[in-house]
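Ticket #4471: structure export looks truncated?
Reporter: QA, pipeline team
Priority: medium

Steps to reproduce: submit the single chain below to the structure queue and open the exported record.
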Amino acid sequence: MPELKRILHVEDDPSIQAVAKVALEAVGGFEVLSCSSGQEALDKVADFAPDFILLDVMMPGMDGPQTLERLVALVDIDVVPVAFMTAKVQPPEIAHYLSLGARDVIIKPFDPMQLASQIRAIWSRSNG
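Actual output as written to the record:
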């Protein structure tokens, strides 16, 4: 199984971005690139070469699903799993996110102590 090291996190809220970065770096031991918009993620994804992409759904301008549609041209999401992070977790919404190619949905508000293990679990299922 390939190793999970680099996570691209796309989140427009600076406080959520900061908590997730600390949770994933300090607790998870990952290298995290935080992007504040879908466009920033698209601009930086090739150079960063993430192993995993964590994508906020609700963002101004280009939202998470629109960002994912554009990411698939740049990243093989069969190899680099994508998970959405959102507070909108009704079954039809989750089904829609999965239909776009996401592997899973992490619910907001998330537990910073659990975030790294949630991502590891999605990674393990994706590479099982």
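Status: closed, not a bug. The export was complete when the record was re-opened. Leaving a note from the reviewer for reference: The first helix runs from residue 14 to 27.
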